[in-house]
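Assemble and predict.
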Amino acid sequence: MQVEIRDDFDLQKIAACGQCFRAKPLAGGVWRFLTGRHVLYIKKLADGLYDVSCGEADWQAVWAPYFDLARDYGALRAQADGGCPFVRDAVQCGCGLRVLRQDPWETLVTFIISQRKNIPAISRAVELLAARFGEPVGAAGEPVCAFPTPEALAAAAPEALAACSLGYRTAYVRDAAEKVSSGELDLRAIAVLDDEALFQALQQVRGVGRKVADCVCLFGYGRTARAPVDVWIARAIDGQFGGRNPFPAYGENAGIVQQYIFYYQKNPTSSNREK
DNA sequence: TATCAGGGCCTAG
DNA sequence: CTAGGCCCTGAT
């Protein structure tokens, strides 16, 4: 079916801005996205017009929330810079990206895996996990597996997990799988907590520190006041903000602005390529 | 081929 | 608070 999306929406940027690791361009301009057990094939037909592989019910229930379509990014961009030239350039550069609302479990594990890895390495590890422990969910002729359940990963042999390029993170993923599958950590229940309590609850898992917890808050629970500070954002703070973290001042939009700045740090436009 | 850094976290000091 | 180790990959 076809859907109309009038706000900022650039599939390339959405897939490339380091928040999801399984989005993939297929032949003919089609992009594949995955979340939970859901698969979406989406293709741009014209400005603001897209062909999607799902029906209306799934679009409304799963994918519109996933792409954060209820938020007006155009309006946010217009007001976000606060007179700061760097932020102004960043939101212009990243126009079209969206902060995805992903499955909390998948977000937790993928960001545990992300530590000390670059994006291609993260994607590789996550794909190996899905292929080895996930359920097939793809369309005919396009084999792909859902992200494994907590139960599947809890039952996995450590050696089999380690074979998915997890390295020292194997123990962390196992701890997450055990805590979640046993109910010791209830990812659904903690959704009612306030930002700080959620942030703390997530750090019960081994291998989850501030940065990973913030990523899960932002990308898995839609807590847009959280702004994860990774090496790229730290560089921006040092280089552009005199060492002072600018994100608290953005309040509920901090996480969105963080994504623009992150994208800009990694994809500087030619006129701003120094540093 | 060798080296380094990569969307950190844990532990010890 | 800071330094080092960690397991593996991708980039140079």
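The CA atoms of residues 109 and 275 of chain A lie 32 Å apart.
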